[in-house]
């Protein structure tokens, strides 16, 4: 069963489909709060049709990509991947992606809504290099498993991921189907991705569901990533933001050599200059729209980027992500957001309250 067909099946069963990160996927399977709780406390089963995949081939692929992104692709062992930013020459974020060493090629995953822009940047900088970029997004389907029980659910379904480390991918034959399983390269989103031919979508989805995973839509996933403090490109990561401001230190490597935008990143590091930083807020009231000013003593001190009402075990809370001046980034600082009181929080948010 293809992705399009399983989406029809989802819709027939009552799921609400929507657009997310440039792809079509279930927004909710009918109970967003229960789906979120599965991600928080159990295992959520995610349709990742919005994930794009680019294959890089050619003799210069490793050296070239290492010069395009903020993390170390050059020294990746076989079957390993890293999360990175793509910057412009001024050090501003143009996109984010994960790069995997797959032996005779590199696999790059990102959001479908970023594909065109990233492919255009790649094309602009492939000059005399032996590098070819192919988009295989429609050939390789993906489901996600996230939450504290994700590993156990995968193993219950017959996939041995006990020794899989962050950013690592393994290949397996599962019930006569060729699959690859990758553990998230984003530490705060400690989940797994299963890649396979789209013709096998229904079989793999049903097997994971039967193993105990709860189908979860993009509405629940958005709440989960906010609780985990993970910024999303185009919303929390924008082309005016600098890498160190985002707090995503796992996206940076300072020993890999030159890359696009590296001079600015190194200058910030060497001079310890950081005027803004990415933080969380707990808001007393309704979720503020993106871009709402964060104020202290009637002065603008930052802005929000994402926010949601989140059904945590201790009750619903309004949580937000955004940027503030470094001098007020201390947890516990009381600020005003859209006329409502808010408290600066460390990320990820504590989810037990």
Provide a descriptive summary of the structure in words.
The protein is α+β, with helices and mostly antiparallel strands. It is 22% helix and 35% strand. The chain has 8 helices and 19 strands. The chain has helices at 3-12, 32-41, 61-66, 112-125, 150-156, 201-210, 218-228, 262-271; strands spanning 16-20, 23-28, 44-47, 51-57, 81-87, 93-101, 106-111, 132-135, 140-146, 169-174, 177-183, 191-197, 214-216, 276-283, 293-296, 299-312, 315-325, 334-337, 340-345. The protein has a 6-stranded mixed beta sheet. A 6-stranded antiparallel β-barrel has the order 14-17-16-15-18-19. Strand 1 (16-20) and strand 2 form a beta hairpin. Helix 2 crosses helix 7. The radius of gyration is 20 Å and the shape is globular. The mean pLDDT is 96.
Strand order of the largest sheet: 10-11-12-9-3-13
Give the helix level as a range of percent: 10-25%
Principal-axes shape call: globular
**Cα radius of gyration in angstroms:** 20 Å
Sheet with most strands: 6 strands, mixed
Give the terminus-to-terminus CA distance: 41 Å
Q: Total helix count?
A: 8
The tally of beta strands, per DSSP, is: 19
Unreliable parts:
none
Class derived from helix and strand content: alpha+beta
Average residue-wise pLDDT? 96
Strand content: 35-45%
Helix-strand topology string: HEEHEEHEEEHEEHEEEHEHHEEEEEE
